[in-house]
Amino acid sequence: QVQLVEFGGGLVQAGGSLRLSCAASGSIFTINTMGWYRQAPGKQRELVATITNAGSTNAADSVKGRFTISRDNAKNTVYLQMNSLKPEDTAVYYCNALIWPAGRGSFKDYWGQGTQVTVSS
């Protein structure tokens, strides 16, 4: 069974840094795009950044220049380095990946359980 497990959330002061990681495990044939989304209280889930298996990235304007997404294809892992954090970055961060499970016929969308990031002012 394929699953995504996230690590690295926590509490940090404004201006600080955190690094999130998300590892895909299980019977996997291949992984296409991986990414991070976030959801703040009372708000809709929004895109933070994505990265394709070829390394092309996309990021929300609100995090450009502060957050960097990367991945290790050999480890089926995606990372989010978050610098210069602001209180408005406070949210639950979710990992997302488009995965082709072994023995299946197509890609399927998977989500992690979420990890809390809290930035204090």
Q: Would you kindly provide a written description of the structure presented here, covering whatever features stand out?
A:
The protein is 0% helix and 59% strand. The chain has 121 residues and is an all-beta fold. The strands form two sheets. Strands 2, 4, 5, 6, 9, 10 and 11 form a seven-stranded mixed β-sheet that branches. Strands 1-3-8-7 form a four-stranded antiparallel β-sheet, with no helix packed on it. A hairpin with a 6-residue loop joins strand 9 (91-101) and strand 10 (108-111). The relative contact order is 0.33. The mean pLDDT is 97.
Labels describing this entry:
single chain; 121 residues; mainly beta; 4-stranded antiparallel β-sheet; 59% strand
Quaternary structure annotation:
single chain
Q: Can you summarize the main beta sheet?
A: 7 strands, mixed
Rg calc: 14 Å
What is the CA–CA distance across the termini? 41 Å
Record field, number of beta strands: 11
Q: Which percent range describes the beta-strand content?
A: over 45%
Poorly predicted runs of 5 or more residues: none
Which whole number gives the mean pLDDT? 97
Shape: elongated
Order of helices and strands: EEEEEEEEEEE
What fraction, in percent, of the residue positions are helical?
under 10%
Q: Helix count, per DSSP?
A: 0
> What would you call the structural class?
mainly beta
